[in-house]
Specification:
This protein has 272 residues and is mainly α. It has one domain (3-268). It has helices at residues 3-8, 45-65, 74-95, 99-118, 133-155, 157-165, 175-220, 225-268. The chain is globular. The termini are far apart. The relative contact order is 0.13. The model is unreliable at 1-15 (pLDDT under 50).
C-alpha cells in the first residue's frame, strides 16, 4: 500500500487490489487481531477502541465533575452544558417525573456513541466503532433490556406484555391481527431498527470517506498532471465529507438516545 494512503487511512485487512486499498469494500471493515495466531482473534483493534471509548467517557465525566464552583470555569461549563442538554431536551421532556432514574444511562449512552463515532474522524483510528454491526446490535440490546425491564418493573410481566401487545380500545375482532403486529413491533423490530439506523449511517459514511481519500491519493501518485489535479480536488472534498461525518456522528448519537428514551417512556406509560 502506498505510504501516503497508510498515513491517511489505516485500512483494515488490506482491502482492494494489489494491496492498494482501492476499491474499498467490506474488507476495509475487517478487524485486526492484536495477537495473530494466538487463538485470541476476539481481542482485536475494534474491541480495544470500544474499551478506550468507555475509558474516555468515564474519565471525562469524572474530570468535569471535580472541583465544582459557583462560578463555573471552562471545564465545568462544558460538562454542565452537555449534561443539561441531555437532561432537559431528552430525559425530562420525554420521561417526565421518571427521568432521574434513567438519566445516568442516557448520558452514558450518548457519550459512548458520540466518542466512538468521532473515532472515525481521528487519523489515529479512522474507524467509527458502530460501523461494525455487532457493536450496534450489542448497544441496541442494552436499550432493549432497559425499556422492557422498566415496563415489567412498572406493570408486572403479564401486565406489561398485555400493554405492549394490545393497545386500548382495539375491537376483539382485530386482536388476532393486532397482537402479533404489536409484538413484532415492540420486541423485535425496535431493537433491530435502532441498531441498523446507527450502523448503516456510519458504515456508508466511512465508505464514502475511503473512496475520496484513497481514490484521491492514488490519483496524486499517478504522476500525470490531470489525474493529480483530480486527486487534489478529491482530497480537498474529503475534508468536507469529514465535517459532514462529524455532524452525522453527533446526530446519530442524539437520535439513538432520544429513541431509547421514547421506548422507555412508552414502556412506562399507562396505556399505549
Amino acid at each position: 500500500m502506498p505510504g501516503l494512503i497508510g498515513l491517511l487511512i489505516p485500512l483494515e485487512g488490506g482491502a482492494g487490489e494489489a494491496g492498494t486499498g482501492f476499491p474499498p469494500g467490506v474488507e476495509s471493515f475487517h478487524s485486526r487481531p492484536l495477537f495473530p495466531g494466538a487463538g485470541m482473534d476476539w481481542l482485536n483493534n475494534h474491541l480495544v477502541q470500544a474499551i478506550l471509548a468507555a475509558v474516555v467517557v468515564i474519565g471525562f465525566w469524572l474530570w468535569v465533575s471535580r472541583g465544582q464552583k459557583v462560578v463555573p470555569g471552562r471545564k465545568q461549563f462544558a460538562g454542565e452544558f452537555l449534561y443539561n442538554l441531555l437532561r432537559n431536551t431528552i430525559a425530562r421532556d420525554i420521561l417526565g417525573h421518571d427521568y432521574r432514574k434513567f438519566l445516568p444511562y442516557l448520558v452514558a449512552l450518548f457519550s459512548f456513541i458520540l466518542v466512538n463515532n468521532l473515532f472515525g474522524q481521528f487519523f489515529l483510528f479512522m474507524f467509527p466503532t458502530f460501523s461494525k454491526i455487532g457493536y450496534a446490535y450489542g448497544l441496541a440490546l442494552l436499550s432493549w433490556v432497559l425499556y422492557n425491564g422498566a415496563g415489567i418493573a412498572r406493570s408486572g410481566f403479564f401486565g406489561y406484555l398485555k400493554k405492549a401487545t394490545l393497545p386500548a380500545g382495539v375491537p376483539k375482532a382485530l386482536w388476532v391481527l393486532i397482537i402479533p403486529l404489536e409484538f413484532l413491533s415492540n420486541f423485535i423490530v425496535r431493537p433491530i431498527t435502532l441498531a441498523l439506523r446507527l450502523f448503516a449511517n456510519l458504515f456508508a459514511g466511512h465508505l464514502v470517506v475511503l473512496v475520496f481519500v484513497i481514490g484521491g491519493t492514488l490519483l496524486l501518485e499517478s504522476g500525470q498532471a490531470f489525474y493529480m489535479a483530480a486527486g487534489g480536488v478529491s482530497l480537498i472534498f474529503s475534508f468536507a465529507i469529514f465535517a459532514l461525518e462529524i455532524f452525522v456522528g453527533v446526530l446519530q448519537a442524539y437520535i439513538f438516545t432520544v429513541l431509547t428514551a421514547q421506548y422507555v417512556s412508552s414502556a412506562l406509560a399507562e396505556e399505549h
